[in-house]
Model the fold of this input.
Amino acid sequence: MIAIYLDDPNRIETAQQLASKLRLPITPTPHGYPILLVITSARLELRLPDSHFKPIYVDFLGANWSHRLKQIGRDNELIAKAVGIKKSFRPTIVDATAGLGGDALVLSALGCRVTMIERSPIIAALLRDGLERAKFEQLELLEGDTKQILPNLAKRQSIDVVYLDPMFPIRTKSALVKKEMRVLKEIVGEDPDSSELLNIALPLVQKRVVVKRPLHAATLTSLQPDITYKGKATRFDVYLK
Ligand SMILES: C[S@@+](CC[C@H](N)C(=O)[O-])C[C@H]1O[C@@H](n2cnc3c(N)ncnc32)[C@H](O)[C@@H]1O
Done:
């Protein structure tokens, strides 16, 4: 299904390293595979060659993100309230479902130290590539399953907040669903263990677990949140320690 394609022949070593890490073939042509991880001279990109999707990559230094990051601090960010940021308190956060790192970047721009965990090797490769280019010191990435990593991490460092944003089923072909989400879903599938993550995280945090959900979706488990912050399309369910 997925192969690595080299757009910049000078980066053959990078391609070989990635191929052996992800156990993927390197293809000499950009056709014949529905999903390609493309190594360009600038970055690592995910492409669906036979579709209308634009390449997906992590570019924390690009125009979209720099515009968004400029708003931070000016806007009253709901996510800041959800994780419990105060004037004099910046929680240490584990983003236990990192994806392409968007929420983690916002949280780090708000002044928090964020450890991200991502289990899909392909998503993690895209994220690591973006992080290496951006060189943000407040953001760290651990690759693997949160169910194993989080309990070990909690033994080594104090975790104020665990942030969870598991995949939720995409209902229709609605144009409102962001393209990244659709492709992400194609690669990582559903997150059937997401309720387990809440149960594992709660005893390990000092302050709270925050779960991002679609506005009208059911709660992650039968446990009711202590606080809910509602946005236009999403909400944050907060489970206090
Ligand atoms: C909806 S995406 C997160 C999007 C992210 N908040 C962002 O802003 O880009 C969910 C991600 O969590 C990851 N994930 C789900 N369960 C996980 C687990 N048990 N351990 C590590 N990663 C997990 C999936 O692979 C997927 O990339």
User: Anything to note?
Assistant: Residues 97, 99-103, 117-120, 123, 145-147, 165-167, 184, 188, 191, 193, 197 surround S-adenosylmethionine (CB under 6 Å). The CA atoms of residues 68 and 106 lie 9 Å apart. The chain has a mean pLDDT of 91.
